[in-house]
Write a structure and sequence with these properties.
Number of helices: 21
CATH class of the largest domain: Mainly Alpha
Largest sheet: none
Helix content: over 70%
CATH topology of the largest domain: Growth Hormone, Chain: A
Shape: globular
Number of strands: 0
CATH superfamily of the largest domain: MFS general substrate transporter like domains
């Protein structure tokens, strides 16, 4: 199903343009990090006013990552229940509320609002790759790279604007922490036209065969009714219903024969849907997607597949390296004799070149038949950057830029795998929830472990060596995840 006919609620919904849908998607992406990166620059002012210790402040900053890990596994079920559009809209509403609540007086509200923010972004994180898979199935890399670049841009703007905005009024740090609720409401407004006629995934799968990927009979390899063996059951080897695997129509996710349009021998769209469900072996991956769609998206679980865990490991390891550098790069450089001002510039380079890496990766993803080469090159860039910081810290600008390119490319590649390695948007949401849950658990622990290693050794040599080793391991999972395979 593509953007031209993705809704099933009526003709009005079918007139949505790809540009409108893409605009809503990009505005949602702009909300994914802005509310998080705005905290760091004003954390000292926040600590002074509320009397927070450094440990408590660190826990506050890490709370969204913990929420990502906890909530992500449940987001696919929410999408099946409400539909992608409604789940995204609900996430934006909760995000706007959380951003405002955390800026209100009272320390409990700060924690409550931060928790709401983390839960909302967790849902948005999981939904966007599924939305890309469903509405832009032939442009996964390009669209993922674009929304990752938008996400990084707003994150950088939020971090850079926090201190100046905090100095504008007596509200201080509370204003920059709350103001991004306006962006959430703007994104919600852009999503509203898409809510008309939107259905939960399970209902949509039964109401319109296009939702199951059957825009036309040829898609399922059924060029005509004779080919499907509907005019003559023997022609398809269907001497009886049991042979076709149709002993029980419920097995195809169809509660009764009437629902499938099989009350008589007529040959309509619903009959073709049933024929496609019985022709899974001939239709290959498309047929598996059909069965998954008609069954309410309850196909093969990524949690039970090697490929699902390979993609998850890639997501976890690349996220860990990114959050370690975001947290500790300035400290690593100042310990090596780099001035604090210069280290700040290098942090800007890290973020800026991250946008360039996102765009470059999105351009290259579909230039070859698989992503194995990219899956190897990206970890090599990250390992090279970490090795450079360790061996030649005086050239920090080069290493920060290299890490930015590698980090931006790695997150685009990881997010693209959610769509490239799955058969439909429902399974993409399941893989996204799995990989982001495990990934953010590991990512949240990464900076803490690296900091503990530094405290224990009094040096950044061992922590950087550990990061290099993790990046080398990442090469293996990049190669495995990049193979042209589907979870099925």
């Amino acid at each position: 199903m593509t953007v031209t006919d993705r809704a099933v609620g009526g003709s009005a919904a079918r007139t949505l343009s790809p540009a409108l849908i893409l605009t809503g998607l990009l505005l949602v992406a702009g909300n994914l990090r802005a509310g998080i990166t705005t905290v760091g620059p004003v954390i000292e002012e926040l600590q002074r006013e509320l009397g927070l210790s450094s440990l408590t402040a660190s826990a506050l900053i890490s709370l969204p990552l913990v929420a990502f890990a906890v909530v992500s596994p449940f987001a696919p079920a929410l999408a099946r229940s409400l539909g992608l559009e409604r789940a995204l809209a609900g996430g934006l509403v909760v995000l706007a509320v959380g951003l405002v609540v955390r800026s209100l007086p009272g320390q409990p509200l700060l924690w409550l609002g931060t928790g709401l923010l983390g839960m909302a972004i967790a849902v948005l994180n999981v939904m966007l790759p599924a939305l890309v898979k469903r509405d832009f199935p032939h442009r996964i890399g390009q669209i993922t790279g674009t929304y990752s670049a938008v996400q990084s841009s707003f994150a950088a703007i939020a971090a850079g604007a926090a201190v100046p905005v905090a100095g504008l009024t007596a509200l201080g740090w509370r204003l920059p922490l709350a103001m991004w609720s306006g962006l959430a409401l703007i994104a919600l407004g852009a999503m509203l036209p898409q809510l008309r006629g939107a259905l939960p995934d399970a209902a949509a799968g039964l109401r319109n065969v296009d939702t199951a990927g059957l825009r036309n009979v040829d898609t399922a390899g059924l060029r005509n009714v004779d080919t499907a063996g509907l005019r003559n059951a023997d022609a398809a080897g269907l001497r009886n219903a049991d042979t076709a695997g149709l002993r029980n129509v419920d097995a195809a996710g169809l509660p009764n024969a009437g629902t499938a349009g099989l009350q008589n021998g007529g040959v309509g769209d619903s009959e073709r849907a049933s024929a496609a469900a019985s022709g899974v072996d001939r239709a290959g991956a498309v047929g598996r997607a059909v069965v998954g769609g008609l069954a309410g998206g309850r196909g093969r679980s990524p949690w039970r597949t090697a490929l699902g865990w390979q993609v998850t490991a890639f997501m976890a390891l690349q996220s860990t390296g990114y959050y370690v550098l975001i947290t500790w790069l300035p400290s690593m450089e100042t310990a090596a004799g780099v001035s604090a001002a210069t280290a700040g510039v290098h942090q800007l380079l890290l973020n800026g070149f991250g946008i360039a890496g996102s765009i470059a990766c999105s351009t290259l993803i579909h230039r070859s038949r698989d992503q194995r080469l990219l899956g190897v090159i990206v970890p090599v860039l990250l390992a090279g950057a970490a090795g450079g910081i360790l061996a030649f810290p005086a050239y920090g600008a080069i290493w920060a830029s290299l890490a930015g390119v590698g980090g931006g490319a790695s997150i685009v590649l990881a997010l693209s795998f959610f769509g490239l390695r799955t058969v439909d948007h429902t399974q993409a949401a399941q893989l996204s929830g799995m990989a982001q849950s495990v990934g953010y658990i590991v990512a949240a622990a990464g900076p803490i472990v690296v900091g503990a290693l530094h405290d224990a050794t009094g040096s950044w040599s061992l922590p950087l060596t550990v990061i290099i080793v993790l990046d080398l391991i990442l090469i293996t999972f990049g190669w495995l995840s990049g193979r042209p395979r589907l979870i099925g």
